[in-house]
Amino acid sequence: MKKLLVLSTALTTIAFAAQADVTVMSWGGAYGAAQTEAHVKPFAEKTGIKTTMTDSDNPATPIKAMVEAGNVTIDVASVEYADAIRLCDEGLLEPIDPASLPAGADGVAAVDDFLPGAITDCGVSTDIWATVFAYDTTKFPEGPKTAADFFDLTKFPGKRGLHKGAKAVLEFALMADGVAPADVYAALATPEGVDKAFAKLDTIKKDVVWWEAGAQPPQLLADGEVAMTSAYNGRIFNAAIGEGKPFQIVWDAQTFENEMYVIPKGAPNKDEALQFIAYATSTEGMQAQATQISYGPARKSANATPIMYKDGKTLMGPNVPTAPENMANALGSSFEFWVDHDAELNDRFNAWLAAN
Predict the structure, then answer these.
(1) Torsion sign (Cα): 296, 302, 308, 314
(2) Residue 175 region, left (φ>0) first, then alpha (ψ -120 to 50), else beta?
(3) Helices (H), the chain
(4) What CA–CA distance (Å, rounded) separates 181 from 303?
(5) pLDDT digits over 47-84, tens only?
(6) Tens of pLDDT along 269-290?
């Protein structure tokens, strides 16, 4: 009888585990598709845990709303680095023990295998991505080469696409105005520097089409609504290489940062969420994602061997933000700055946007 009871308990535990679902929230478009193919589908197949993807224009926003309402319906979310720090500081995320992450494929412990800063108290980096700008080569055969060209409506006429928010837009404006990347955040920490950024944006304000979701910039270019646009580099790469669109990335004045997987506080399937993150941010998980979209792996072991795009013809190395040739005038996004200044600068941005 005792053996039957033990067996019954074990079967109940197995059945309960099999019923657990993991819901991952990401950014949709090419990025969400890449994570679905590289992480969601193979994790579900390997573990038997039903895993689904859901989209958001910015997953940080629903995380805050869900946790504060006590109604968390997702288990894992993909968020920007500064948001991972901020949400963690506000007590809205579950802590993640680095010891729970697998060693690299070469046996190096995770804490030594991840690139510096890629593991935080509540987040684990999935990749390194960048905000760049891109143009339609059919409109500009001898296209723009610098951030300053983006703001030159005389030499390069046409509408411009920009993200509807302060982050990466203010930095881009300052670099286009001649501020060196190393000096950008010192400048933005002063009223004069902020004024300088908005003055630069004033020069193109009437010609800007504002976008909010990462899937929009490639579509704006494809539809001819803009001649050039800021964008996430992987979205443009997928449109150009994956879909044959006549788009060209300009790496000058790119702003790059880590993207993070996090677990909202009170996630209904926390243990399974931790399993998912461990799988997705393993050497193999990062390499798999890099075959789908041109964001750089955040582990040394994942960068140790060449990675080919899913077409089997395109080498990913030269197409990721961290390629040496793409870093000549690059800016690493400062999470410390944005954690401290996000609210005030977005308030200023929204007021500027509403003004005539």
Answers:
(1) positive
(2) alpha
(3) 2-19, 29-35, 41-47, 60-69, 81-89, 110-113, 147-150, 169-176, 184-188, 191-202, 216-222, 233-237, 270-280, 283-290, 335-354
(4) 25
(5) 999 999 999 999 999 999 999 999 999 999 999 999 99
(6) 999 999 999 999 999 999 999 9
